[in-house]
# Entry
Amino acid sequence: MNYDSVLVRLKEERWRLSVTQEQMGVYIHSSQSSYSKVERGERLLAYAELKSMCEHGVDIHFIFTGQRCGERYQEFFHRLEYPELLGCMGVLASAVKYLYISGTSEGWEAIYRQVVFWGCVESLRESDGNVFYGLRKQLDYTQQKLADQLGVDIKKLRALETNKALPDSELLCKLCNMYHIPPAAVLKDAEGLANGIHCLLERMDAEKGNLVFRFLSGLNEHTSKNVRNRI
# Structure
């Protein structure tokens, strides 16, 4: 799946929302002509522009992955805040890894590959958390090796690792395609992250998907009750 596919789905999402290129330009604080260059692949979307699209209801998860979730778990995940969703990611990743490594679930290699690098997203709970640094440490790569894989020079990677630079749409596409890191997690987009978690649960067989969901919802209820008791 390459960046051209992202551009195709960007147009599909705009059509789904019945939004013109001019309106999308307004969403990203740009002109229609500038936005049209994005759809033609003549310029990339900046981090701030992608954030703004999220705030206007654009399904970032679909644009970068081609996945749309159903309604099975929608009510639960879409009422959670971004930090809670990051917690759900951690629990879900641990459950998938356990089921895969223990050999209790057949045919789960593809699902396992989806979560194997989710650990580096945990750092995004902190204000200075950095997914690029976390990813490089998990891979045990030098800066040069990761820079080469991402197709950037080492100065750019250093700036990304220290939050002096932010990823654009092409870099988010590479993180997603190569390491299955949800762009919505990096963009801190709660709705997109909820869609990503929801889609992964739906890829599991119904029994195990429902088992993991019941654990997540029960854990959330327990946490919420403890918070209410302290107030």
User: Anything to note?
Assistant: Confidence is low (pLDDT under 50) at residues 227-231. The longest helix spans residues 206-230. The CA atoms of residues 12 and 18 lie 10 Å apart. DSSP finds 15 helices and no strands in the chain.
